[in-house]
Structure formats: C-alpha cells, structure tokens
Amino acid sequence: MAGKLDVHTHALPDFFHKPLLALGRDATGVPMIEWSMEDTKKMNAQLNVGISILSLSAPGPDVLPDKEGARSLARQYNEWAADITKANPAHFGFFAAVPSLHDYEGSLAEIRYALDVLKADGVCLFTSYDSQYLGTRAFEPVWKELNDRAAVVFIHPTMAKDSHLVSTMLQPPSFDFAHETGRTAAHLILTGIKRKYADTKIILSHGGGTLPILSERLAISESHRFLNTLEEGGPKTYEAILEDTKSFYFDLALAGTDNVLDMLLKWAPKGHVLYGSDYPYADAEAVFNTAKLAEYDMPDGVREEYYVGNGMALFPRFNKKS
After folding, report:
1. Which of 19, 211, 231, 234 has the most crowded Cβ, counting Cβ within 10 A?
2. Helix pair 238-245, 211-223: axis angle to 10 deg
3. What's the count of helices (H) and strands (E) in the chain, helices before strands?
4. What region holds the Amidohydrolase-related domain (predicted)?
5. The CATH number of 4-314 is which of 3.30.300.20, 3.20.20.140, 3.30.70.1110, 3.40.30.10?
6. Residue-wise over 28-39: b if at least 16 C-beta within 10 A, else e?
7. Is 166 left (phi over 0), alpha (psi -120 to 50) or beta?
8. Burial degree of 178 (CB within 10 A; 0-12, 13-18, 19+)
9. Rounded to a whole number, what is the largest CA-CA distance in the chain?
10. Parallel, antiparallel, or unpaired: how do β-strands 4-10 and 49-55 relate?
11. How far is CA 257 from CA 206, 248, 288, 293, in A?
C-alpha cells in the first residue's frame, strides 16, 4: 500500500515564535513547539506517511491584534509553506493561512494570492474568530469565494475568546477542541451556510469532534422543538439537517481508537474519512493513534481508502507525481 496522505500536519516556522512569545505560550495553553523538516520527515517515515498537507495550528495570524500585522504574517507563512511545497511537490502541500475573517478584505486577498499564485492545496480556517463561529453572516463573502473555487477548507479548532479552563489539569486540546469543532459545524449547518456553499469541501479535524455523536440530537431538536430558531436558508427538516452533518469530511487525527472508529466509520459517507496525524503537537499521540488505527479490523481495501484513496480524490494533483 502507498504511504498515507496526512491532511492534518502542522508546521510552525521560526518567525511565528515571536508573536507567540508575547503570549508566553500558544492560544491552546500548551507550550510552543519546535518544528523542523528533518523531524517531520523522520516521523513520516515512522508513520508511513507519503504526503503531508501542512497547516498552522491555533493561533493563526490574527495572534497579532493589528490588521496589517495579521495580513503580513499570513502572507509570510504562506510563502514559506509554498517554498516547502515547491521543493518537495510529490510529498508536501499546504493549507493557506488567512488573517481574521473579520478582516474579510484581507482574507479574500490572501485566499486569491495563495490559491492563484502560490498554488495552495486549500485554505485553513479556525472554528471561531473573536467567539463568532464560521456560519456568521459577516464571513459570507469568504465562503462565497471559497465556494466559487470549489476549494478544500480545513477547519482546525481554537478556543472561543471567552473560554476559561475548568482545571489547569485539563488543557483545551484534550476536551474543549472537540466541542468547538462540533459547535462551528452545527453553526454552519443551521445558518444555511453549509448548504448554500456546498461546493466547498470542508474537512473537520479530529473525527469531526462532537458532531457525529450529537448529529441525531441536533437534527431532532432543531427540526422539532426549536424550528423557529433556524435562520432563513437553513435546513428545516430532520432529514435535511442530518444530511448536512454528513456532508463534511472527517480526519482521523487523535480519533483512531476503537470507540471512535466504531461510530465514525459506520456513520460517515463513503469517501469522507481521511488520515491525519496532528504531528508535531501530538507526536507520541500520533504514533499511538496510528498504531490503534492499524489494529482496527477492516478490509485492506477500505483501510487504503482511509489512508490514501479518499485524500487523493480531494487532492488529485498528487496522482500526477511520481
């Protein structure tokens, strides 16, 4: 079987450390990482990953509070990631970074530059911007642009601005990130953005967070008791809401254990499950998760779809590389 196609690999350049140092840590509450191409290649060999799509983890370029600073940081990151891809086109791609979606003009300009000039493989968005989830109407120009291009959109969780830790022992990536992914997915569905801009191919991190397990509850509740809360253009029936929950793609980063796979692989539509490692933020966890995934009982042909085939369908340019 060919090496895996990893849609969830992070890359943090040295120049991103300076704004993070102002925080003392990254926005997730965990220490900053040191990233290197050499270590990434070593881990890829260990995990049998043949292709990595690089992206930023939280926080994004809007870690800089001023508009021009965030725009500049996004551009710097994208050109850096594009250089990696150009040097290793058969083995690396990248999701473009954008400034805050509240700066929709800056985001649109960066999307166009990244996709048209730098040939990015897609765009990375975070689950919320200043506590506003991705179905927010002010963000609609960005979704229209992405939809017009039938772009791949990788959604990575971040913390809501008003979040606080339940305990210092429970860091956000361990628990809260899954909720944030579920929340923004539900918001995209109920506002009608997901259905209106259906040509975008949206990847949800970490098995879709809480969305798969709460999809039936969401569909039942919103189509019956709370029908009047649905926005114009949103799905109005149980069947339509459930259909929209399954219209996303789901990566298996930190989601390769039996209890998750038992549900997700039966629930998600064919072609919608992708391999992800979450390296280097989850280095030991990536090894453990991949080992558990390898142990999970499934036909070899199905396994290859999750590891490689489904990703190749989203990123056909890699089929042309030797």
Report:
1. 211
2. 160
3. 13, 10
4. 70-316
5. 3.20.20.140
6. bbeeebebeeee
7. alpha
8. buried
9. 55
10. parallel
11. 11, 20, 9, 6
